[in-house]
Amino acid sequence: MLRTALVSVRLPLRSKFPTRAFSTSSAWRTINSLHTFSEEEELLRDSVRRFAQDVVGPKVREMDENEMMDPSVIKDLFEQGLMGIETSAEHGGAESSFTSAIISIEELAKVDPSVSVMCDVHNTLVNTVIRKYGTKEQQEKWLPQLAESKLGSFCLSETASGSDAFALQTRAIKDGDNWVINGSKMWITNSYEAEVFLIFANIDPSKGYKGITCFIATRDMGIQIAKKEQKLGIRASSTCTLNFDDLKIPAENVIGGEGLGYKIAIEILNEGRIGIAAQMLGLAQGAFDKAVPYTYERKQFGQAVGTFQGMAFQIAQAAIDLESARLLTYNAARRKEEGVALLRRQPWPNIGRALWHNGCQDRRSNGLVGGFTRETGIEKFWRDSKIGAIYEGTSNIQLQTISKFIQKEYS
Ligand SMILES: Cc1cc2nc3c(=O)[nH]c(=O)nc-3n(C[C@H](O)[C@H](O)[C@H](O)COP(=O)(O)OP(=O)(O)OC[C@H]3O[C@@H](n4cnc5c(N)ncnc54)[C@H](O)[C@@H]3O)c2cc1C
């Protein structure tokens, strides 16, 4: 029964989508609603929604309690074609649009933000770096593995370089046909289970950030997991410290060119942040869908608590915040597909995520006793939401970026 469901889920995603909605076809340009999707995208949304509810849903609580991703979920993500969403069919992927990736991340997050971020980092960061900056040979070698079975991670942050990412200390020194990497990375998502690692290291600190270079490494080259973090939220998503001790990487594994790692990191995180916005959007909708019906079931003073004005207005405000975050996220995805320079508007979806985070989540937890115990799964959404203000640029860094653009334009 389950297999049948999986097969039916998989078919639309694996099929080659003929058009990229929101982008190339002039017919789409006449449609203004941000809620308009192509038929293929609607099919994909339904498929991922069913997969998330039927396959991931029953495992969410156990994975959270165990602080560990169920290996079968990772296998299923690959089998569903969800780990090569934008990868070309030639390289074993679904050859779909960026918006399709965003929809998938959102749908997974409605059920489990940990599974969602696993899919997000793998697709929007790791696959995209190789698709955009890899040579033909690198694409042929790595993309099929990443679409079929090998999980990827993106290793930029270090103990002393978080928001100031380019202050990284990891060094790479050329030794014949190899690069030898020494240093460590911190807070690396997916790294406990990953087999492919994109590592940012400096090949010439005298050049500052212009020495930063991106390397492709595999676990069996000698990457050591020094520590697996215990976290408040997204506990099933692994976050580890990695050590590189004379890690030998073949010279052909430099990606995008020597000294161009900073450019890759900036450009990729600009796109990737839309994925994190989608994760927070899905999370917010998931919490809303669970919390709000309870307010109409729960009666006090002879009436449903959700119908008291004090509660009803909080629910209405939460719905407005949620819709605002949705429109910001979808719009950023469309603009990215249209090839519009992302930088100026790109942080906005993240402000959307902060809007939800600060507003609805706290309102919900204040207003509903049902969200305080673990059984309902609502408190998990609250815990999981906290990461939205931190990774791929903290809320302050997003605000700083937006304010710089405003200043440039108006001063
Ligand atoms: C669960 C998790 C998963 C992660 N996954 C990855 C991953 O896969 N790969 C990866 O490379 N990294 C990852 N990170 C790291 C993440 O990107 C960093 O945590 C983030 O960039 C913030 O860096 P930091 O934690 O060092 O905070 P800091 O940069 O030290 O910031 C601390 C505080 O100071 C504020 N601040 C800093 N600079 C400024 C400024 N100029 N103006 C105003 N306020 C400022 C920040 O907003 C924040 O509130 C992950 C982190 C977490 C927690």
UniProtKB/TrEMBL annotation:
Pathway(s) per entry: Lipid metabolism; mitochondrial fatty acid beta-oxidation; Amino-acid degradation; L-isoleucine degradation
Gene Ontology CC: mitochondrion
GO molecular function: flavin adenine dinucleotide binding; short-chain 2-methyl fatty acyl-CoA dehydrogenase activity
Residue ranges of domain Acyl-CoA oxidase/dehydrogenase middle in the record: 153-246
Acyl-CoA dehydrogenase/oxidase C-terminal domain segment(s): 261-405
InterPro entries registered for this protein in UniProt: Acyl-CoA_DH_CS, Acyl-CoA_Oxase/DH_mid-dom, Acyl-CoA_Oxase/DH_mid-dom_sf, AcylCo_DH-like_C, AcylCo_DH/oxidase_C, AcylCoA_DH/ox_N, AcylCoA_DH/ox_N_sf, AcylCoA_DH/oxidase_NM_dom_sf
This enzyme's EC code(s): 1.3.8.5
Keywords from the UniProt entry: FAD, Fatty acid metabolism, Flavoprotein, Lipid metabolism, Oxidoreductase
Domain Acyl-CoA dehydrogenase/oxidase N-terminal: 38-148
Annotated catalysed reactions: 2-methylbutanoyl-CoA + oxidized [electron-transfer flavoprotein] + H(+) = (2E)-2-methylbut-2-enoyl-CoA + reduced [electron-transfer flavoprotein]
Taxonomic superkingdom: Eukaryota
UniProt record, GO biological process: fatty acid metabolic process
Assembly behavior: Homotetramer.
Protein name: short-chain 2-methylacyl-CoA dehydrogenase
Organism: Multifurca ochricompacta
